[in-house]
Write a structure and sequence with these properties.
- The complex is a heterodimer of chains A (423) and B (602).
- Chain A is mostly helical and 423 residues long.
- Chain A contains 17 helices and three strands.
- Chain A has a three-stranded antiparallel β-sheet with strand order 1-2-3, covered by helices on one side.
- In chain A, α2 runs antiparallel to α3, α3 packs parallel to α17 and α10 packs across α11.
- The two termini of chain A are 20 Å apart.
- The mean pLDDT of chain A is 86.
- Chain B is α+β, with helices and mostly antiparallel strands.
- Chain B has two domains: 77 residues; 360 residues, DD-peptidase/beta-lactamase superfamily (Beta-lactamase), CATH 3.40.710.
- Chain B is built from 22 helices and 16 strands.
- The radius of gyration of chain B is 32 Å and the shape is elongated.
- The chains are: A mainly alpha (423), B alpha+beta (602).
- Chains A and B meet through α13, α14, α15 and α16 of A and α1 and α2 of B.
């Protein structure tokens, strides 16, 4: 059996199928969103839909090449790839081009722009997987905890410095991986994170005073409970409440001083505190109209007035889900959501059957990354989350993201195909 | 894995509620992308009975501006104010002033920049208007009245009022739409206006038209309004208006065989073109404040005591009820008669024919008394009830409810009214003035004219109406083509008709001065006492006696005797209609130039 046949026989075709289905839906959606009667061919290379076809072709080619490369290469070179991407992130800070407030592009000339932050996610996943794969690394040890945290935090910080908050938030997904790999305390960090978000939201909704009263009442109840049951840990509980009080106390400050104005507005719009469908709430308002007007079966391919006539901004990139919703209706959106959830579950299932730590950790990393993109992008399009500009992998227009996400997935498929060779 | 499914399910629930349950977004998307452009139909034209044009639409062009688009900085093609001003023939100050006014109105919505641009300038400007973004022409039509006559009949159109909008059950009208306000514009609003069309256009986020929606599937072409032919004779109407200059009152003429109104003059009148276009409000106010009240249509809403013209009604009912016969004579002591004196000197005791010719007051009082006291009714109140019912059937005391706007019912008192007034104690003497058309009885010139038409037809009439036919084959409402028989035996009406002939032809006839050799006229004078000064001069007439072509009523307020003003005016109208011109030039001149002085401000 030669090497090539064994690859084709062993790769997980279900994953490849889900991937291709999403890519094709994305391509047709971009065509529809940017459809132009002067250029009615979906293959017209002068239009974004034609360009997306080039990116899809390039992605498939690179994905294929990845499948041919020795699986051990990525583990062995994970740190080098990581370092190279960190350099490119530095380079962006120095040479980068600013688009919409974020400086995340490097102009490579010939009309090709390169967005290193898209690749940083993959590189971080490789580096983290490579590091945790080392035999001497144990997440119970303080040193290894620090190193693995730093591996994530450095690229995250660099992306934040580019003022690309959306991409930075994606790095939060690595906490799922660290939790899965037994990084002590990460579970509590997640709980604390959820509690902090809830406190933040309710403080903005109800004002600090109300929150103090609610927290006070909870404190009294908790203390009574502890006093009656005579349980231990009352001091810890008091400390938790103290932190919560301080947090609520600082919400106003954080909201007004730390966040930028457009971020503040997006949060206020989401919470219904700010009603400005023509101004800061325009994107979400139009996006919801587009999706909502699709009805059950949609308006039909190329029939969406919201997207075709440019009422939704960024409709071929971050708001591509609108086109799916308007022209495909609930059927269309449900298919995309189900495809996505299936892909995520498939990646997790495949990860669980890996024999090497590298493959497993890497699988978890990319599942986390896709999941955060999926949640934030669709969540914002349907008005459940504030507007955070990150693409919907495989569907949104964009060369860097198309290439990066394809490579990310291809590496995993390769690792999986190779799993039986690892003893 | 659980969290993936949880988020997936959360999204699906949200999407289901957003897309399937909530229908609101579909509407919002349509609001975004669809522009519903109303297509206004052309309003129907109005012609007279011979096809002379009375009302038509005239196109006017308003130059509109959307300040935002006009003010947009475009460095490639800067706005050439100088050329633009030259094109419109305005100076720069005027340009700035107009633009500021438009901006003040609305920055984003179109406002008129230059209104009522002539057809010639329009063609010239429209050709190069594409160079000036934000400007476009809007075509409007205004009503135009080429003959400047019959203002009250034709009426006018104006912007719909809040009250009219509220009453619009069909939800047809929108704010700013035009609607018939008076005259036939109001009566035939539905037929004249046509049906609005609709064009559904798709626009993009920049409000650019991207094409029609679904290949025009929802588009509706407007349906033009129907043309209307009136029964009116425009030449006769114009002649009547000329005769009435300087007099307050009205002329109503109908064609007895159809009930179509031939002339409908209310004096003083006004030029209907005044209530058109931009100056409408100003002119309307002026007319409203005019002490002569030219806006009132006296032919339908002026109510007058009929005076002696009413003797026709009293006489016919008396004969029909068998209370008198044509041979019945009543004693007349001239001015010494009781309880009503006679204003004429004639021999006693007149029979019916003599009484009509001489307009003998005591005779008709006695006839009236004989009717209501007729033993066959079993009591004076029952007798009165019969009498009143008969007048109603002859078209008095109520509206005709055809197509004539602002009709007033006039007044024939009810039995209950007198019961209340006189505490139940009343008799023929109490209400004696009714017998000679005075007292509580009030009629409109239209109702009086109808009496003339009924006698001309020897016993029936068609409810008087304005329309002759529509421009298409639509039938006119049945009520106008349905013969009404008030229940008077034609043989009595013929006797009345012969009597009315002697008013002209008889040696003592009250209108004998206006007899013509070749046209046999019939008529009855009326000289009505009223609380506003001198007598009202009334006259009813029809001609020719055999196969009458025209029946009319003329009331000249404070004109004195019926024979002074009303009779000659009626006679001239008859001659004009039948002959086409008047041979009696002296009479014509005297009437046209005659002025009645009205001291009282009314």
């Amino acid at each position: 059996m030669n090497e090539r046949n064994s690859i084709i026989g062993k790769i997980d075709w279900l994953t490849v199928f889900l991937y291709l289905a999403l890519v094709i839906i994305g391509w047709f959606s971009i065509f529809s969103a940017k459809y132009d009667e002067m250029h009615p061919s979906i293959f017209d290379l002068s239009q974004v839909y034609g360009k997306q076809l080039i990116w899809i072709g390039a992605s498939l080619l690179i994905g294929f090449i990845i499948l041919l490369i020795d699986a051990k290469f990525f583990n062995a070179f994970s740190m080098w790839i990581y370092v190279a991407v960190l350099f490119s992130l530095f380079a962006v800070l120095v040479y980068g081009k600013a688009t919409k407030g974020a400086t995340s592009w490097i102009d490579l000339g010939a009309g090709i722009k390169f967005q290193p932050s898209e690749f940083a996610k993959m590189a971080t996943a490789l580096a983290l997987a490579g590091y945790l794969d080392r035999l001497d690394v144990d997440l119970q040890k303080r040193k290894d905890q620090i190193v693995s945290a730093i591996l994530v935090l450095i690229p995250m910080a660099l992306v934040l410095l580019q003022n690309d908050t959306g991409s930075a938030i994606v790095f939060v997904s690595f906490i799922f991986v660290l939790y899965r790999e037994g990084f002590p305390g990460t579970g509590w960090v997640m709980v604390a994170g959820v509690v902090a978000i809830l406190l933040f939201v309710f403080t903005l909704l109800w004002s600090q005073k109300v929150m103090y009263i609610i927290l006070g009442a909870l404190l009294v109840l908790t203390l009574t409970y502890y006093l009656i049951t005579k349980k231990k840990g009352i001091m810890k509980m008091l400390a938790v409440f103290a932190v919560m009080f301080v947090f609520v106390f600082s919400v106003d400050y954080a909201f007004n001083k730390v966040l930028q104005e457009h971020q503040r507005n997006r949060i206020l719009v989401l919470l219904g505190q700010l009603d400005d469908p023509k101004g800061v709430g325009y994107n979400v308002h139009q996006s919801k109209i587009a999706i909502g007007s699709g009805g059950f079966a949609g308006k039909g391919f190329l029939q969406g007035t919201q997207t075709k006539y440019d009422f939704v901004p960024e409709q071929h990139t971050d708001f591509i889900f609108c086109t799916v919703g308007e022209e495909g209706g609930f059927l269309g959106t449900a298919v995309v959501v189900l495809l996505y959830v299936s892909l995520l579950i498939r990646i997790i299932l495949l990860s669980e059957r890996q024999r090497s730590t590298f493959s497993r950790v890497y699988g978890y990393c990319i599942a986390g990354i896709f999941f955060v993109h999926f949640t934030i992008n669709i969540g914002m399009a349907i008005g459940l989350l504030p507007v955070i500009g990150i693409p919907l992998p495989f569907l949104s227009y964009g060369g860097s993201s198309m290439l990066a996400f394809t490579m990310m997935l291809a590496i995993f498929v390769k690792q999986d195909a190779n799993r039986l060779k690892i003893l | 894995m659980g969290i993936f499914i949880a988020v997936g399910v959360l999204f699906l629930i949200r999407l289901f509620s957003l897309q399937v349950l909530d229908k609101h977004y579909k509407e919002l998307a349509d609001n975004n992308a669809l522009r519903f452009v109303t297509q206004y139909p052309a309003r129907g034209k109005v012609f007279d009975r011979n096809g002379q044009l009375l009302v038509f639409n005239e196109a006017v062009y308003d130059l509109m501006v959307i300040p935002k688009q006009a003010m947009k900085k475009d460095t490639l093609n800067p706005f050439d104010t100088l050329t633009f001003c030259a094109l419109l023939d305005i100076d720069k100050e005027s340009f700035v002033e107009r633009m500021n006014k438009a901006k003040k109105e609305s920055y984003l919505k179109p406002s008129p920049f230059l209104t009522q641009v002539s057809k010639e300038s329009y063609a010239h400007i429209a050709e190069v208007l594409y160079k000036f973004p934000g400007f476009y022409f809007q075509t409007r039509t205004v009503r135009h009245y080429p003959m400047s006559i019959a203002a009250h009949t034709l009426g006018d159109i104006g912007e719909i009022s809040a009250g009219e909008l509220e009453k619009d059950q069909e939800d047809y009208y929108r704010q700013g739409d035009y609607i018939g306000k008076s005259g036939i514009e109001r009566s035939y609003e539905k037929e004249l206006r046509g049906v609005k069309g609709l064009k559904v256009m798709m626009v993009d986020v920049h409000n650019r038209v991207m094409g029609s929606y679904n290949d025009g599937e929802l588009d509706r072409e407007p349906i033009a309004g129907k043309d209307i032919y009136l029964g009116m004779d425009a030449d006769l109407q114009a002649y009547g208006e000329k005769l009435m200059v300087g007099k307050i009152g009205s002329i109503v003429a109908v064609e007895p065989s159809t009930g179509q109104i031939l002339a409908f003059v209310s004096s003083p009148t006004y030029d209907p073109n005044l209530l058109v276009g931009r100056e409408r409000g100003k002119h309307y106010k002026e007319l409203q404040e005019d002490p002569m009240k030219p806006l009132i249509n006296r032919a339908t809403s002026g109510t007058y005591p009929p005076g002696s013209t009413f003797k026709t009604v009293v006489g016919l009912i008396a004969m029909q009820s068998g209370s008198i016969t044509p041979a019945t004579c009543f004693h007349c002591a001239g001015p010494g008669s009781l309880p009503i004196k006679c204003t004429h000197h004639h021999g006693s005791s007149p029979d019916f024919a003599n009484a009509i010719m001489n307009s003998c007051n005591p005779y008709f009082y006695e006839s009236f008394k004989a009717t209501i006291n007729n033993p066959k009714f079993g009591g004076i109140k029952e007798g009165y009830q019969y009498w009143k019912d008969m007048t109603y059937q002859m078209g008095l005391g109520h509206k005709f409810n055809t197509d004539i706007p602002y009709e007033r019912p006039g007044n024939i008192p009810t039995r209950e009214y007198y019961d209340k007034m006189y505490n139940g104690q009343w008799n023929s003497v109490t209400i004696r003035s009714l017998g000679i058309g005075q007292g509580e009885v009030l009629v409109t010139p239209l109702q009086l004219c109808n009496i003339a038409a009924m006698i001309a037809n020897e016993g029936y009439y068609y409810p008087p109406h304005l329309i002759k036919c529509f421009g298409d084959t639509t039938a006119i409402p049945e009520v106008m083509t349905t013969k009404v028989d008030p229940g008077i035996n034609p043989k009595y009406v013929r006797i009345m008709k012969n009597g009315l002939r002697t008013v002209f032809s008889g040696s003592a006839g009250t209108a004998r001065r206006y007899e013509m050799k070749d046209i046999a006229q019939c008529g009855k004078t009326g000289t009505a006492q009223n609380p506003h000064g001198n007598y009202h001069s009334n006259f009813i007439a029809f001609a020719p006696a055999e196969n009458p072509k025209i029946a009319l009523a003329v009331i000249i307020e404070n004109g004195g005797y019926g024979a002074t003003w009303a009779a000659p005016i009626a006679s001239l109208m008859i001659e004009k209609y039948i002959r086409g011109y008047s041979e009696r030039e002296d009479l014509e001149k005297r009437i046209m130039e005659g002025r009645i002085s009205y001291k009282n401000e009314r």
